[in-house]
User: Fold this.
Amino acid sequence: MGPMIFSFLVSFTTLSLSALVTLSSSDELFYHNCGNSFKCGSIAGVGYPFHGYEEPEYCGYPGLVLACKNNIPTIRIVNVEYRVLDIDQTTKTMRIAREDMMGDVCKLDLVNTTLDNSPFEFASSYTNLNFMYGCHFSVFPNLIQIPSCNISGNEVFLLPETGFFNLGCESKITVPVEGWDMAMNLSNLGQAIQSGFKVRWKVDSEKCRDCAGSGGRCGYDFVTNRTTCYCPNPPYTAETCSTAAGALPTTAPTVPGMLLCL
Ligand SMILES: *[C@@H]1O[C@H](CO)[C@@H](O)[C@H](O)[C@H]1NC(C)=O
Ligand SMILES: *[C@@H]1O[C@H](CO)[C@@H](O)[C@H](O)[C@H]1NC(C)=O
Ligand SMILES: *[C@@H]1O[C@H](CO)[C@@H](O)[C@H](O)[C@H]1NC(C)=O
Ligand SMILES: *[C@@H]1O[C@H](CO)[C@@H](O)[C@H](O)[C@H]1NC(C)=O
Assistant:
């Protein structure tokens, strides 16, 4: 009798434990793991489609990952790091500025500012400034307003985008600026660049609204490549959750509780 009960207990415990392990690796965790909103510096309460750097990937839309460095919120878009100056989730816009140019606009990394193939588009009017460097000329008519930076020992010239000039420069970096004015000097140009530009994220928010309204938490399904909904109760992943927010959880009792019942 004794050994039988013992072996029954052992196999029951083993069963319960394996059930728990199965549960832990199941969809149930999606809801629990995606409960944090992003907070950093002056920005708080930012949720889906964004997610914080430390959160699981499935909590946010691909590419909409916010980081926090020394209390400064940043986002990486097409290989450029931007400072996030503000976020407005109702208009789906945010104001961003190139992080490399926040100290000294002349110390920019040699990468273009582009939103191509990103989930963002420009959301306000702007002028694309070309920082031209490695140019094979020393004097140029006064079309070039601000010849005052150096990149890798090369003088840098600035041109608002025209598409007209081919000045024989080695390369150029484009940087968008709002309120460009030919009369700008390096100081107020710097301020304009550091005030950033507005972008809009091209992610439908309707599905997430419905999900949140049903008591779920929004996430991203990397199989269907779509916004999905994580629920506190089964089914843990759905279009919307079937039970209203605040409903009592109907999940199975935990392992310690089951052992106590024995
Ligand atoms: C930036 O983009 C322009 C085209 O818009 C290109 O000519 C230039 O080489 C690019 N610069 C770098 C550093 O990639
Ligand atoms: C930029 O570099 C050139 C060539 O190395 C140098 O002659 C010039 O003084 C530098 N200008 C500035 C503003 O540092
Ligand atoms: C830059 O221009 C602004 C306004 O035009 C002016 O007030 C400021 O003194 C100028 N700064 C420098 C360093 O020239
Ligand atoms: C989802 O996106 C990945 C990567 O872009 C792609 O390989 C996959 O085919 C997509 N799946 C669907 C269902 O569109």
Notes: The chain has five helices and 16 strands. The first strand starts at residue 38 and ends at 40. The helical segments are 2-24, 28-33, 186-194, 206-213, 255-261. The two ends are 16 Å apart (CA to CA).
